[in-house]
């Protein structure tokens, strides 16, 4: 019997509010990590993590992939959602049921009912990789929240304002944490500080972030 898994399932989520409509659900994904990682492996066999370039030609330090009806890509033509993986010219892998179920539960717990994401972006960070301050503006629906699942090495997340130069608060995100961003907080600038070297027992020397979105 897996007593620890049972114990996790009974832990109430520790909720931290970091914005008017932005909540960190500490450890919310922990009871489902095994299923998430199995589903993730399956997705990444079909659409592997790869380096992408910004429209300005800079290589992103995180490696990316996607699943679901729409995947996020960037190249010299710009940022966009596309139904096809540019590596294979085939549809992105199907959104795993485990992602959908967990994202809906997290969105509900944060007060957003009926969340049905059609896009899932996967970011993999090796030590030193980061994500510069940016806004997520490519999603058609701005009323749906974004649900993000952190796995592996911890990160220091930067949560800013509506101008790039606004002050940022720093929030540590750990393996199993889920963040739900909605409403007034959806267009805030945000980023990830360079990941510190370390080893995670399940993920090794990396951090994986899975974001679920309603993009179409
Ligand atoms: C706050 N990813 O993929 S996830 C991204 O940890 C992205 O990989 C980061 O920013 C990561 O676009 C942060 C959390 C996140 C996602 C979307 C947001 C925070 C957000 C949209 C608005 C405000
Ligand atoms: Fe973002």
UniProtKB/TrEMBL annotation:
Q: Which SUPFAM superfamilies match?
A: Clavaminate synthase-like
User: Residue ranges of the Fe2OG dioxygenase domain?
Assistant: 116-216
Q: How is the cofactor bound?
A: Binds 1 Fe(2+) ion per subunit.
Q: What is the superkingdom listed in this entry's lineage?
A: Bacteria
Instruction: Kindly give the Gene3D superfamilies that the UniProt entry links to this protein.
Output: Alpha-ketoglutarate-dependent dioxygenase AlkB-like
Gene Ontology molecular-function annotations: broad specificity oxidative DNA demethylase activity; ferrous iron binding; oxidative RNA demethylase activity
Keyword annotations of the record: Dioxygenase, Iron, Metal-binding, Oxidoreductase
Please identify the protein, giving its name as recorded.
Alpha-ketoglutarate-dependent dioxygenase AlkB
User: What is the scientific name of the source organism?
Assistant: Pseudomonas fragi
Lineage of the organism:
Bacteria, Pseudomonadati, Pseudomonadota, Gammaproteobacteria, Pseudomonadales
